[in-house]
Design a protein that fits this description.
By secondary structure, this protein is mainly β. 5% of the residues lie in helices and 62% in strands. The chain is globular.
Length: 229
Amino acid sequence: MKKTFLSLILLIFTISNLGAHTSHYKGIKVINMDVFRNGKLIGYSNYFFTHGKDTLEVKNYTKFKVKLMQLVIFSISGESLEKYKNGKLISYQSTTFQNDKEKYVKLNFDEKNNNFLIDGSSFKGKVDTETIIGHWWNHKILKVDKQISPISGSIKKQIVKFIEAESIKLNEKNYILHHYKLISQNSNLPEDKRLDFDIWLNPKNNLIYKITYERAGKWEYRLKNFEIN
């Protein structure tokens, strides 16, 4: 079961690229998301934004635990920092502990060759700047065909399909949200490595309000609140 959760969490985080539409988040200070498993609140994934004249920094802190019979069978604690200049990603760093095992990513933009250089615990190499790091604050996740794991740096290819506009009730409020399906390009991947997410976006503010998937239980990331200047 621990192996299943380990594969799962890599997928959770595998979903900011050179042009991450950062202007769409002007004024955003904080995005707080709750993490649920089988309907039970188990942790959080929160984002903090620092805006400069032509810069943006996004810090993420994620932490949750999965228990079985009062025993912790899976835990994760991670933090990361994305840096943008003039709307372009110039660096990314993360450190994550999964069941006390450390994983990391160090990414820098190579201006001369116009690509990203990645030193990660699962991948070391180059990737084009149309590849996105998968954090749930960034709606660009729905517009690209490749993603970089924020935990380990691995590269995965994806397909995103618009399903429909839906009326969704969250935190006692009703919203009209756009429902998308995000899956792996390679349908022959083992189930525990396959991307399979349902994502709901608010087109009015470009914020992702809800993400669900099933893997060793029913998981949900749900927008708790956000703050603007």
